Amino acid sequence: MLELVEVSRCYGDVVALEDLSLGVPKARMVGFVGPNGAGKTTAMRIVLGLQQPDTGEVRWEGRPLDAGMRRRIGYMPEERGLYPKMRALEQLIYVARLSGLGAGAALSSANLWIERFGLQERANDRVETLSLGNQQRVQLAVALVHNPDLLVLDEPFSGLDPVGVDLMSDVLKDEVVGGAAVIFSSHQLELVERICNDVAIINNGRLVASGTVDDLRSTGERLIRIEGSHGAVDGAAALAGVTVRTKAAGSVVVRLEDSLDGEQVLDAARAGGPVSHFSTERPSLADRFREAVAYGAE
Ligand SMILES: Nc1ncnc2c1ncn2[C@@H]1O[C@H](COP(=O)(O)OP(=O)(O)OP(=O)(O)O)[C@@H](O)[C@H]1O
Ligand SMILES: [Mg+2]
Question: Domains in the chain, please, with CATH?
Fold first, then answer.
């Protein structure tokens, strides 16, 4: 398990991280989310030892993370880091060798990942001639080629088409099944909700919510969906103590203040006209994100 323990880091007056503690257990996928400038990249760079924390510590299996263990990490940096003139396969072999694999093992692992990412036809192309999505596939292959125990990936899904997203998701899920600890940052909350076990939400360098995807979605705000006539929808939306979350012709989702219960919303809707559907809705991860970030900014 990877742990960040009360990690803080400032840049001049800017507090990039403030007492950030979070864990990435083996065989779990953790989504690391937060608004632009929240501190995700800084936290990941600190894990990799590319930046030093002012205070706090990074641990692996309970011990301070050292250079030896850092070689067991697969990293995808935000700014990417391929050698543009190198050929894709060559690049993978090079990185595998740097991580300590022998020549034979490096070649077979590199070939395996080229195949897994469907890059056979591109294996001998220079990286700079590949499309953005294919460069990204090579970038993830680079992170995986030495069979790491921990994956730290900064926005691995950005810029990928849906096929690329599915491929990348499947690869990461397989790594988790194989026992790796995986943490990745992303702004694609629906994707995070779909494929992650756990989520950590940060804002202004602080952890504002964390837990399993289910836990996060089952706590927090209460939402009610009403479908029915124009009058019913308007009646529910106008009730004191509700906030309209989404509204369309014939349907509305409202957020309830603590003082209200669902029955009152239903009554208000019925007073306006016929109701064809009434249900409670679980907040999506995106809802929870907005809530946690708004609260964290107070
Ligand atoms: N090298 C640096 N020098 C000065 N300030 C920095 C440096 N790196 C990061 N920061 C600041 O630290 C804060 C956190 O930035 P960071 O890049 O970690 O955010 P992020 O969550 O990765 O954002 P994004 O979603 O946009 O990638 C920001 O206010 C940023 O301007
Ligand atoms: Mg970033």
Answer: 2-211 (3.40.50.300), 221-282 (3.30.70)
